[in-house]
Amino acid sequence: MNKDQKEQTVKALEEKFSRSRSAVFVEFKGLSVHGMEDLRRRSRQAHVEFQVLKNTLAERAFHVLNLTGGDRLFIGPTAVAFGVDDPVIPIKVMKDFAKDNPQVVLKGGVIEGRLCAQSTLGAIADLPPREMLLSHLLMQMQAPLTGLVNTLSAPIRGLINCLKALEQKKSQA
Question: I need a labelling partner for 17 at 20 to 30 A (CA). Which of 10, 56, 98, 114 fits?
Fold first, then answer.
């Protein structure tokens, strides 16, 4: 790879880092060719851009994010999964693949411009989908209102039930 090709690669990576909502770094030492093909296939199906990196070029491109502490991400064979639309999908894809393939290890990542450790990525991957979280939040917001409506309508319901019971008693007599 000559100098011009390296510069083009760095510029392309800088562009990917800047437009992506998340970037998950993984180590894949010992992964077979078949395993790598499977990982690439799963990434494509989830609309995640997966790329094996040359550490020195990736490290240069990574500095466009102005994050400190990312040097540990570029040790050993490194690949990155970019998430453009949903920042959580690449994390879930990589973690699910790593469950079946212990050769793949999540190193860390960048989510919405913040550097995240391996443990943080694991916690994010275990979260339920966004739609489920939003529906749960909506239910929690509605619960006090529902309780208030039930509390306010209880005396009226009680009166109606008493009147119905009185009506039934009079109709039987």
Answer: 98
